[in-house]
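Lab intake sheet, docking and co-folding queue.

SAMPLE TYPE: protein with bound small molecule
LIGAND NAME: manganese (II) ion
LIGAND FORMAT: SMILES
REQUESTED OUTPUT: full 3D complex as structure tokens
PRIORITY: normal
SUBMITTED BY: R.K., bench team

The fields below were copied directly from the construct record.
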Amino acid sequence: MKRRNTKNSQEVLEILQKEEAAVSHEKIMAQLEGVDRATIYRILNRFHEDGKVHKIVGDDGKQYFALCLNCGESKHVHNHFHFRCVQCNEVVCLDKEISLQMPEGYIAENFNGVISGVCKKCNS
Amino acid sequence: MKRRNTKNSQEVLEILQKEEAAVSHEKIMAQLEGVDRATIYRILNRFHEDGKVHKIVGDDGKQYFALCLNCGESKHVHNHFHFRCVQCNEVVCLDKEISLQMPEGYIAENFNGVISGVCKKCNS
DNA sequence: TCTTTAAATGCAACTATGTCGCAATAAATG
DNA sequence: CATTTATTGCGACATAGTTGCATTTAAAGA
Ligand SMILES: [Mn+2]
Ligand SMILES: [Mn+2]
Ligand SMILES: [Zn+2]
Ligand SMILES: [Zn+2]
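RESULT FIELD (auto-filled):
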């Protein structure tokens, strides 16, 4: 299925590029008035299918999306934690890559590590 | 707020004790026909407030509850990953405790690490 | 044991997040 | 410009979880 370059998907991409944190659907909605809810979800899911973004599920149960920066086309890993601030709701990457030994017979497909708490800004 | 020892909360506790995996609301519902949805949620949340159980949020966005075993009353840590099988939906603890250095100024309050994939049973 | 108190429950309504079907719109290609 | 089909808007739907309120019931006391 060939992708088309639409105003909406461009704008969502720009938002993702501008933000260095991982972005929620809600936050994108707020910056794109007039664009339908479902459309934004579809754009984000398309990006994810295409390997353009990571999808993180927070410990609030919500989805957050972040541009893939260090991911090659073939190997696509983001074994790092994210920090979610319970006050300002920012979700940032914690750079350190985690290597985790799986028990015999278990096949890991997705890594989803989230630490929540209070971020530097909100703390000080 | 003093807790009361009711048939329902006893039964939920028994289910949590019997299962070694982390349990979803859905799974408890299935084993306790006749008990209201909301009641089960409330019991689980009470257990969590009281520090009896861990609450894990899966990368499916759902909540899973597991009895606290190695948690003291005061120090209450469960810095370990959970593995969620995308086929059988079991959520098990991966024993190894993770120690993670927080960046300067960040206060960690909750650890939520989930690896999803295919478990040993479903794999073989 | 009877009475009192408030925690726990059932039920319905509600919120929130995300998905889907379908007709209308609009990129891309020639 | 005409054709094709990916994308969109809209409404409906699904699922997970929460909340208000009247009723029930565990627990403490008389
Ligand atoms: Mn990636
Ligand atoms: Mn614990
Ligand atoms: Zn913050
Ligand atoms: Zn399995």
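REVIEWER NOTE: Residues 1-4, 6, 8-9, 35-39, 42-43, 46, 61 of chain A lie near DNA strand D (CB under 10 Å from a C1').
SIGN-OFF: pending second check by T.M.
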